[in-house]
Please model this.
Amino acid sequence: MPEPEDTLSRSPVDFDSAVAYALHPEMRRLIILYLVGTLLLPIGLSMFVNPPFIGGLAQIVRQIIGLAIVLVGATFFFGGVIGALFKLVADANILAAALDEE
Model:
């Protein structure tokens, strides 16, 4: 296995290609998914935990809607983060395999 310093010195990755990678459509979708989840989580939590002083059925419906928003937001948040990490690791492995073949 090659030394990390050798791999980094031969790496074709520079700042321009890193920015292009971050703006790649797949990464852009994962980042947007993460951002939407980041926005939905506090909105849903505020609806679920701090309902206004409305009594009865309206309060329960508002809490159920808040819980649904929290679940969707958490799914988007963690899906974006985990998806981006998996894509980063998979692409790094592809790059390392290509460099190792040279």
The helical segments are 4-10, 15-22, 25-49, 57-101. The longest helix spans residues 57-101.
